[in-house]
């Protein structure tokens, strides 16, 4: 998984540098703010990809005396930073577009805007297809995929706007064509903002040790039920009370705590070990690094059931 994640980040880095640099040159040559905005948006992502690479390296490092639980928090931190930087770029683009509108618009070449939108959308889709397998199992690769999906959407809006400007410029509303460029930037910012907010929200939730997504919680509950049944120590004479389950996901590590409040003198350490093995073996199918704690206790206070 680490190799797949690193490869995905490297692909994203190279594609961002090539397409972003090309967009800046194209935007300056065509005098189109929306193309220039797209290029700046992509080039700003180079720094974020570098941060993601460092986060991946930190998260993949082994626990040490200084970091006994590892450094998996680097992953959601990088995701949140990427979302925050994307929001900052959108605010800059929107503010610039408003200034241009009040200044009387821009005379960007509509044909050039249309051509760029088509080329950029196709290129973004190609990168997104390459990233998709790694994005299914890596938060960092998924953040990159979200950025490329946003870029593809932005490019599609640019292409549609370029086509609209060509149509408008040929009719009685020719003066309105000067406003297509900044209006496109505002539309693109509005469309991309939810994706950026989602990145920030997901990263912050993990840093605050929120519960994992619903599909993971369901699989944890299933693993607990199946693990208890497969342990071989529960039967008609001895039954366990409902499990107290707490979990949180931090990057690629999933922390799971399962507590059972039992009666005194009924269960042994061997029983606890059997139940622990039954549960942890089934948690391994989650494609995450599992840090599981399974305990049987007679003291409800120790189970931290709140």
Automatic annotation (TrEMBL):
<feature type="transmembrane region" description="Helical">
    <location>
        <begin position="152"/>
        <end position="176"/>
    </location>
</feature>
<keyword id="KW-0472">Membrane</keyword>
<dbReference type="Pfam" id="PF01545">
    <property type="entry name" value="Cation_efflux"/>
</dbReference>
<feature type="domain" description="Cation efflux protein transmembrane">
    <location>
        <begin position="10"/>
        <end position="208"/>
    </location>
</feature>
<protein>
    <submittedName>
        <fullName>Cation transporter</fullName>
    </submittedName>
</protein>
<feature type="transmembrane region" description="Helical">
    <location>
        <begin position="182"/>
        <end position="200"/>
    </location>
</feature>
<feature type="transmembrane region" description="Helical">
    <location>
        <begin position="109"/>
        <end position="131"/>
    </location>
</feature>
<dbReference type="InterPro" id="IPR058533">
    <property type="entry name" value="Cation_efflux_TM"/>
</dbReference>
<feature type="transmembrane region" description="Helical">
    <location>
        <begin position="79"/>
        <end position="103"/>
    </location>
</feature>
<keyword id="KW-0813">Transport</keyword>
<dbReference type="InterPro" id="IPR027469">
    <property type="entry name" value="Cation_efflux_TMD_sf"/>
</dbReference>
<dbReference type="InterPro" id="IPR050291">
    <property type="entry name" value="CDF_Transporter"/>
</dbReference>
<keyword id="KW-0812">Transmembrane</keyword>
<keyword id="KW-1133">Transmembrane helix</keyword>
<feature type="transmembrane region" description="Helical">
    <location>
        <begin position="41"/>
        <end position="59"/>
    </location>
</feature>
């Amino acid at each position: 998984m680490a190799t797949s994640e690193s490869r995905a980040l490297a692909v994203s880095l190279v594609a961002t540098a090539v397409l972003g640099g090309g967009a800046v040159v194209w935007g300056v040559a065509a005098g189109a703010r929306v193309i220039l905005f797209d290029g700046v948006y992509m080039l700003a992502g180079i720094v974020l990809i570098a941060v993601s690479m460092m986060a991946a390296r930190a998260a993949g490092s082994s626990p040490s005396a200084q970091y006994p639980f590892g450094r998996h928090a680097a992953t959601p931190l990088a995701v949140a930073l990427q979302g925050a930087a994307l929001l900052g770029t959108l605010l800059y683009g929107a503010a610039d577009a408003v200034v241009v509108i009040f200044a009387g618009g821009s005379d960007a070449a509509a044909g050039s805007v249309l051509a760029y939108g088509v080329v950029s959308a196709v290129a973004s889709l190609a990168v997104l297809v390459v990233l998709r397998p790694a994005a299914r199992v890596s938060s960092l690769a998924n953040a990159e995929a979200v950025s490329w999906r946003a870029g593809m959407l932005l490019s599609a809006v640019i292409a549609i706007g370029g086509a609209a400007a060509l149509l408008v410029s040929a009719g009685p509303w020719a003066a309105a064509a000067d406003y297509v460029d900044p209006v496109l930037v505002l539309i693109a910012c509005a469309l991309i903002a939810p994706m950026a907010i989602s990145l920030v929200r997901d990263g912050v939730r993990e840093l605050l040790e929120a519960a994992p997504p619903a599909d993971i919680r369901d699989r944890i509950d299933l693993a607990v039920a199946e693990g208890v049944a497969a342990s071989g120590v529960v039967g008609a004479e001895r039954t366990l009370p409902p499990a107290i389950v707490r979990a949180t996901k931090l990057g690629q590590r999933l922390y799971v705590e399962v507590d059972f409040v039992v009666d005194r003198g009924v269960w042994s350490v061997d029983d606890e070990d059997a139940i622990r093995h039954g549960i942890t073996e089934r948690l391994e199918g989650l494609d995450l690094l599992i840090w599981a704690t399974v305990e049987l206790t007679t003291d409800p206070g120790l189970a931290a059931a709140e």
